[in-house]
Amino acid sequence: MSEFEALMNLQSIDLELDALDDRERELPERDRYEKLAAEVKTSEKALAAKEEVLHKERAVQKRYEDKLDALTEKIEREQKKLYSGVVTIPKELTGIQQEIESLKERRDEEETVLLEQLDVVEPIEKEIAVLAERLVSMRAGTEEAKSAYAAVSAEITAARRERKEKREAVLPGVEKGHLELYEKTRKRYRRAVVNLKDGVCQGCHTDIPAVELRKILEAPGLSKCPNCGRIVVKSSK
């Protein structure tokens, strides 16, 4: 294999590595995974916020329930006192009856308030159930997207490793100074080595003046296009 062939093989491998880098930068699998992961985080925050609201509203509900229970217990105590026979004085019995009626009215009021609070709590509970169910589905979809992204990423990593091994095998066939020129040129152009066909650089597609062309064809070793600076392969093919 001539040095020109080795250099062209090296460039071919480097272009494949470039293509792998491009593919990795623009992976739709990664974009889909990142989008779904972001949506999951947003939904988790929304769910956490709703759960915090529910926690506060349930605390309010519990206070109303405790008040209601306390009133019910007090009513039961007063009723036992009324019917126990311990109190016999009519005025005292009347007072107990009036107290029971007053407690019942207060209990009715508290029951109304509690029902209103339940009307606040129940929709939040339903909304949380919907959000939680949706999150389960979203997380499953995100895991699938993550697996797909990981598979493609692993494929690219393996391909890149294979190309780098091939590159290492080609390098000994390129003279050190020429390799440095190639690496320097590739900082400007991905395709650093191009054919010279019928006096035209196939990199910049510019006709090389006859004097310059003759120098290139007669000079030993590598030559550069006087217009773009790419390395030109001296071939009329």
What is the subunit arrangement here? Answer: single chain
The share of residues in helices is over 70%
Q: Would you tell me the overall average pLDDT? A: 93
CATH class of the largest domain reads Mainly Alpha
DSSP strand count: 4
Amino- and carboxy-terminal Cα gap = 18 Å
- Given as residue ranges, the uncertain stretches (5+ residues, pLDDT < 50) are none
Backbone structural class: mainly alpha
Overall tally of structural domains: 2
| Estimated share of beta-strand residues | 5-15%
| Order of secondary-structure elements | HHHHEEHEE
Number of continuous helical runs: 5
Rough outline = rod-shaped
Biggest sheet: strands side by side, in what order? 2-1-4-3
Largest sheet: 4 strands, mixed
Q: Report the CATH topology name of the largest domain.
A: Helix Hairpins
CATH architecture of the largest domain: Orthogonal Bundle
Description:
With 237 residues, the protein is mainly alpha-helical. It has two domains: 171 residues, Helix Hairpins, CATH 1.10.287; 47 residues, no CATH class. A four-stranded mixed sheet has the order 2-1-4-3. The longest helix has 81 residues. The chain starts with a helix and ends with a strand.
